[in-house]
Write a structure and sequence with these properties.
The protein has 439 residues and is of the alpha/beta class. The chain folds into 2 domains: 307 residues, no CATH class; 102 residues, Periplasmic binding protein-like II (D-Maltodextrin-Binding Protein, domain 2, 3-Layer(aba) Sandwich), CATH 3.40.190. The chain is built from 16 helices and 6 strands. Helix 1 packs across helix 8, helix 11 runs antiparallel to helix 12 and helix 12 packs parallel to helix 14. The chain is elongated. The two termini are 25 Å apart.
Length: 439
């Protein structure tokens, strides 16, 4: 009978919220915004008319004549004229910019001036600066009797691949940067979901309490059944919205890819490849072997464990904190009064996010271990550790403790909820809450 009542409350909470205009708007607006982050830069890159920039070069040192190579967007003209006359030509539009390299007494030109009547782009200034630096360094090396080509040939890229060994003698490639990014991203995602949907539980309780609807509801169901139904119902709303976001984002991205025949990333590389080459050092090249190794390491990640752990800690963490948020909502009459109770409840979760930056440097340390076992911080810390490889017994123990923590916080919240849900017009403090728990 109790399960039937809880299911009715879950259904009511779920249907009431998914039918709201705000839910429908955010369900479709969220994927559009996420897809826009990948698609809009492509249109901005293709629609922006960079054009060709004509640059006059007045080099009093003669060090850099012929050193600036023309690109798709930059055209260099080496001129011999009066500086003021060339400045006038820039204002008249004959040139977009004037690069003046004055002679120096030390015969080492380390200064230059770039005149333009418009803001100079970062690509232009970076390319000029890199070209001049390379030329000056080469001249210094030649003056010291060192061939610059010898220095270039001596430069070697070191490809360090980390291989994790297990007790059975197996070996598995690992890539620390990927593990760090995956761990931090999933933990931050859980952090925001817990707060967003946990706050919805709290607001829902406050709204029903202030509107006195709760008095009618509790005449038919027990306060504990009402609290559990509300928590689980909103959890299902959150899962529904999250899954719809994933599906719709992939769908929008796929439609764009099919419509244009290529992915936004490929188009971005095609439209701005020259600019990127100019902005970076001219000696920098993409190491295809390193890229292949990155994909190889990504494929070696146990995504089955990561996805399962994410769903479990998302639900477990939400259920644990949502019970506490429901208790806070039942103890106050308006949202402004929740601040004194929100900080102690949310502090462990905030601490987990702060500590996660240190956990990635020592995921197997004692601090990381105990925080991943403590139910109030385990949803965040364990997700940081899992991409690095965590023994299954630690994951099982952490999950068991999280379930136990949820049961305890639900019992604790139910004691407060049972009394506070029908309490009106009274300022509640921690001493009062302790009395309710002891009832």
């Amino acid at each position: 009978m109790a399960a039937h009542k809880i299911s009715l409350i879950i259904r009511r909470e779920y249907l009431t919220r998914v039918r709201k205009k705000s839910f429908i708007i955010m369900t479709f607006l969220g994927p559009l915004l996420m897809a826009a982050l990948m698609i809009v830069p492509v249109f901005l890159a293709t629609m922006s008319d960079i054009g060709t920039r004509k640059i006059a070069v007045l080099d009093d040192t003669n060090w850099f004549v012929g050193r600036f190579e023309n690109g798709d967007n930059l055209r260099f003209s080496y001129v011999v004229d009066d500086l003021d006359t060339l400045k006038k030509k820039v204002f008249e539009g004959q040139y977009d910019a004037l690069l003046y390299i004055p002679a120096t007494q030390l015969n080492i030109p380390s200064n230059a001036e770039l005149f333009s009547n418009k803001q100079v782009s970062l690509n232009m200034s970076s390319y000029i600066r890199n070209t001049m630096r390379t030329e000056v360094e080469n001249k210094k090396l030649l003056a010291s009797g060192i061939d610059p080509e010898l220095i270039k040939s001596a430069k070697t890229d070191i490809n360090l691949v980390t291989i994790r060994m297990d007790k059975d003698g197996g070996e598995k490639k690992a890539f620390t940067e990927v593990d760090v990014a995956l761990g931090l991203f999933s933990s931050i995602l859980i952090y925001f979901f817990i707060f967003i949907f946990g706050a919805q539980v709290m607001r829902g309780v406050i709204e029903e309490k202030t509107s006195r609807i709760i008095e009618v509801i509790v005449s038919s169901v027990k306060p504990f059944e009402l609290m559990m139904g509300k928590i689980i119902g909103i959890a299902l709303v959150g899962l529904t919205q999250f899954l719809l976001w994933v599906v719709l984002t992939i769908g929008i991205y796929g439609i764009f890819t099919l419509a244009f025949g290529t992915s936004p990333d490929a188009q971005m590389m095609g439209t701005s490849g020259t600019l990127m080459t100019q902005q970076l050092s001219t000696n920098q090249q993409v190491d295809s072997a390193a890229v292949m190794q990155v994909f190889e390491v990504i494929d070696s990640i146990d995504f089955g464990v990561v996805i399962f752990a994410f769903l479990f800690y998302f639900l477990g963490g939400y259920l644990l904190y949502a019970a506490l948020f429901a208790a806070i909502g039942s103890a106050v009459d308006n949202e402004a009064d929740t601040q004194q109770f929100m900080l102690p409840v949310s502090l462990p979760l905030i601490l987990g996010i702060v500590i996660s930056n240190f956990v990635v440097n020592n995921p197997d340390g004692s601090v990381a271990f105990w925080l991943s076992m403590f139910p109030l911080t385990s949803p965040v810390i364990m997700m940081v550790r899992i991409p690095f490889g965590v023994p299954y017994w630690e994951i099982a123990l952490s999950m068991t403790l999280l379930i136990g923590g949820f049961i305890f916080t639900t019992w604790l919240a139910a004691k407060i909820y049972h009394t506070g849900i029908l309490m009106y017009g009274k300022k509640v403090n921690y001493k009062e809450l302790w009395k309710w728990i002891r009832y």
